[in-house]
Automatic annotation (TrEMBL):
One of its GO terms (biological process) is tetrahydrofolate biosynthetic process. SUPFAM superfamilies: Tetrahydrobiopterin biosynthesis enzymes-like. Residues 4-117 form the Dihydroneopterin aldolase/epimerase domain. This is 7,8-dihydroneopterin aldolase. It comes from Alkaliphilus metalliredigens (strain QYMF). Catalyzes the conversion of 7,8-dihydroneopterin to 6-hydroxymethyl-7,8-dihydropterin. Pathway: Cofactor biosynthesis; tetrahydrofolate biosynthesis; 2-amino-4-hydroxy-6-hydroxymethyl-7,8-dihydropteridine diphosphate from 7,8-dihydroneopterin triphosphate: step 3/4.
């Protein structure tokens, strides 16, 4: 199956279990892989025959920046469900959420989740 990749999308959101996370916010990074048949788009060279990744970006940005979740699992589920609902060409989606400023005392790059959902 072919895929479209949106990599390292950065947003500022208000997600977390602690009240401070919901009040102060923090950075989140999102990767999305959209699995679909891209042959028609490749042959036609017409955006109407593909998944418009700018529109997927806008949907993701709206969810991350304008909704609040306690868990990044719920954030990932919401993104996956909305993309599958709004973009009929997507057969499968892989969403990765990275939270580099989690309130954990230690040295780390990030904490994250990855979910895969199919139609």
């Amino acid at each position: 199956m072919d895929k479209i990749i949106l990599k390292n999308l950065g947003f500022y959101g208000y997600h977390g279990v602690l009240p401070e996370e919901n009040r102060l916010g923090q950075k989140f990074f999102v990767d999305i892989e959209l699995y679909a048949d891209l042959k028609t788009a490749g042959n036609s060279d017409d955006v109407k025959d593909t998944i418009n990744y700018a529109e997927v970006y806008d949907v993701t940005k709206d969810i991350v920046e304008n909704q609040t979740f306690q868990l990044i699992e719920a954030l990932a589920e919401t993104i996956a469900a909305k993309v599958l609902k709004d973009f009929s060409r997507v057969n499968e989606i892989l969403v990765t959420i990275r939270k580099p400023e989690a309130p954990v005392n230690g040295i780390y790059d990030y904490f994250g989740v990855e979910i895969r959902r199919k139609r």
